Amino acid sequence: MHLQIPASREFFIFIIQPIAIFFFLYVAFRILRRNKNPITLTLSTFYILTAIGFTLNIVMVILTLTIFKIEFLILLIYFFTIYLILLAPIFLLVFILHLLYSAPSLSKKKKWIYIIIYGTLCLIIILLPNNIILNESTNWSPIYSWGFLIVLYIFYTCSIFIPTTVNLIRLNRLFKNKDLKKKLRIFTLGIMGNLSTLYGVILYNTWHDPQYRVVWSAISLVLVPLSGFLIYYGIGQNL
Q1: Which of 66, 98, 139, 226 is most exposed, with minimal Cβ within 10 Å?
Q2: Which residue has the higher pLDDT, 53 or 9?
Q3: How far apart are CA 91 and CA 152, in angstroms?
Q4: All structural domains of the chain
């Protein structure tokens, strides 16, 4: 049986994601080349994990195009894809906490406690049964249950979106210099754009409406690389 990939999905995977992978790895390289310290390592980890997640997704789709489709292997790669993409935003939040608090306040131990707790909860949610269907019956396109969408939205909003927004507001109050405030606004636009993409991706895999998929693919083409650039241009390049 020959696999037919919808044009919107083909565009999203083979156009948008390679652009994002190249750009995110390039930005991570630029950040680490300038300096290597806990702050730059945290921010670059966000870019690297996202790039690896997108790469695994492309690998998974390519495997579904071959004549040898091993369902377990495809599912395994896809679960790693979801996990890394969900895990990456915690490094953005920790990066903001690094900027907001002094080194003694945000110790290495506290930082890893945040990351480990969040990463563990992500794993538990992903492994909940009967929430993701990915096999020949779905044309090897992942389908999320609406219950899974609700759980992901609540978890992501409470653990990432709200804490990030609150700490960005605190950071804005802390900065007094006009130039720094301008850079922070650019950085904030990038953060909000990036965090919003995950809501769109989850809905993309849940609501298989052709019109929405076309619209979201077009939005992603601009939003994904642009948000990554604004994060870097706002603050990342000055670390």
Answers
A1: 66
A2: 53
A3: 18
A4: 7-238 (1.20.1070.10)
